[in-house]
Task: structure prediction
Amino acid sequence: MPDVDRERAWLLTVDGAPQSYVDLDEPGHLEFEYVRRLAHVLDCAAGPGAALDLLHLGGGALTLPRYAAGSRPGSRQTVVEFDAGLVDLVAEHLPLAAGADVTVHAADARGWLASAPARSADVIVADVFGGSRVPAQLTSVEYAREAARVLRPGGLYAANLADGAPFGFLRSQLANFGSVFAELALIAEPGVLRGRRFGNAVLLASDAALPVAALARRCAGDAFPARVEHGEALARFVRGAGPVADADAVASPEPPEGAFSLG
Result:
């Protein structure tokens, strides 16, 4: 249910967990750490202000599409959100800014991706949770191949995931995308990477070199500092994990009680 923080700022919660924060007057204000990291990815995906074709799997209250519309004017954005009731609620209470080229579809993310034209997106952002877990249909190597098919050469895939030590789920996701894409990176708060707590991590994949240095600077200088893992350090993290087929795919792990609560 939506909960109003102040007149023009909304906090959307699902089953007591924070799902989206939107400031209608300041779309550049990003409250949640993982959203800020996804925004850093968008900032580094192309030259400043360059328009992009963006596909968002999972929409919530459209926080990131609003940010992209402001920071990259002229971008064409498609949002796929499974919850039709949420789509209607956001359209009624949280209107997009005039001129934002954002089309929202109430549909299943995997089904939409399968029917999307090849080489039609510059960036795919995946932030899909059924309750507090990533659905199994979005955790397989076949899904990773579909994402690669829809991306243009040099395109970028970014996904918000959640896991904790010993990171069986996160390592399998990196193995999936590492078997399809040439380049991988992972962005997370150091405490999460050290296994001290369950938390979000942003997986990046591309067939071209990733903007690791620029991302590392932005993430390190953020109000909520994060680390960018890549190269040999990331290879050591993934070592021993293999791709997971559709037949064996499972949802991401259930978060510990209180992991994402409002406290």
About this structure: The chain is about 30% helix and 25% strand. Confidence is low (pLDDT under 50) at residues 1-6. The radius of gyration is 17 Å. Residues 33-44 form the longest helix (12 residues).
